[in-house]
């Protein structure tokens, strides 16, 4: 006997709710990316080029988020995809982390090369474009901030925009320093700073995505605590074959076998177990199999 509690939850639909804001941020950053890329080659600024490359990953990341939203909606209509396509959100976040890491590493390598022979940089256009980029990133930051609290995919785009915002500040600082002092090394120095700022954040994002993909238990949740709580449910004699994992951001899933105390009422035990998972661990989707304690071999042994 078993019971499933199926609830995709408002958290998992965060990307859908913020779709309009994603499109606005996508269009704004795409336009600025082109401007920055052209200006970077025109001014010879590596810092501006790194900011343009970072903005490219912003645009690509938001584009993948929008694609994941569309795919998820269509996937929900396919009966063969019993969990829809929610994992596409996690895959998009992982791709964002990989791409952004690649850009950061390239900038670091190029910056080291330029320290030996820093080229002249046209600071006027560099400063103007950097200020424009800062304003665009402030708008995109505001558009994505709310959704970043609810979705790992939106969080990836949000982190990229946050990094780009700080990058624009760095480019502005480099332009002012070069214009005021003639210290050309400021350009590759800022590029290095941007790269070092990006890498640890993207690695954390990638680690979170991989953790979901390998179906590890959520970091904030102790499986032993879930086991003990279910064991404490009145009418439960034993808990085994317990699994807890994350489907996508904000959607924790659990399955377990509960051996009942003789004479316990199935409906009461199921209701109490679901309530415990919901109230104590915020697990909205739980599949629980009830096994009478007196029935030998009620649970088949699974080798994996």
TrEMBL record:
<dbReference type="InterPro" id="IPR036837">
    <property type="entry name" value="Cation_efflux_CTD_sf"/>
</dbReference>
<dbReference type="InterPro" id="IPR002524">
    <property type="entry name" value="Cation_efflux"/>
</dbReference>
<feature type="domain" description="Cation efflux protein cytoplasmic">
    <location>
        <begin position="219"/>
        <end position="292"/>
    </location>
</feature>
<dbReference type="InterPro" id="IPR027470">
    <property type="entry name" value="Cation_efflux_CTD"/>
</dbReference>
<feature type="transmembrane region" description="Helical">
    <location>
        <begin position="124"/>
        <end position="144"/>
    </location>
</feature>
<dbReference type="InterPro" id="IPR050681">
    <property type="entry name" value="CDF/SLC30A"/>
</dbReference>
<feature type="transmembrane region" description="Helical">
    <location>
        <begin position="55"/>
        <end position="72"/>
    </location>
</feature>
<feature type="transmembrane region" description="Helical">
    <location>
        <begin position="184"/>
        <end position="203"/>
    </location>
</feature>
<keyword id="KW-0406">Ion transport</keyword>
<feature type="transmembrane region" description="Helical">
    <location>
        <begin position="22"/>
        <end position="49"/>
    </location>
</feature>
<feature type="transmembrane region" description="Helical">
    <location>
        <begin position="156"/>
        <end position="178"/>
    </location>
</feature>
<dbReference type="InterPro" id="IPR058533">
    <property type="entry name" value="Cation_efflux_TM"/>
</dbReference>
<dbReference type="InterPro" id="IPR027469">
    <property type="entry name" value="Cation_efflux_TMD_sf"/>
</dbReference>
<keyword id="KW-1133">Transmembrane helix</keyword>
<feature type="transmembrane region" description="Helical">
    <location>
        <begin position="84"/>
        <end position="109"/>
    </location>
</feature>
<dbReference type="Pfam" id="PF01545">
    <property type="entry name" value="Cation_efflux"/>
</dbReference>
<dbReference type="GO" id="GO:0005886">
    <property type="term" value="C:plasma membrane"/>
</dbReference>
<feature type="domain" description="Cation efflux protein transmembrane">
    <location>
        <begin position="22"/>
        <end position="214"/>
    </location>
</feature>
<keyword id="KW-0472">Membrane</keyword>
<dbReference type="GO" id="GO:0005385">
    <property type="term" value="F:zinc ion transmembrane transporter activity"/>
</dbReference>
<protein>
    <submittedName>
        <fullName>Cobalt-zinc-cadmium efflux system protein</fullName>
    </submittedName>
</protein>
<comment type="similarity">
    <text>Belongs to the cation diffusion facilitator (CDF) transporter (TC 2.A.4) family. SLC30A subfamily.</text>
</comment>
<keyword id="KW-0813">Transport</keyword>
<keyword id="KW-0812">Transmembrane</keyword>
<dbReference type="Pfam" id="PF16916">
    <property type="entry name" value="ZT_dimer"/>
</dbReference>
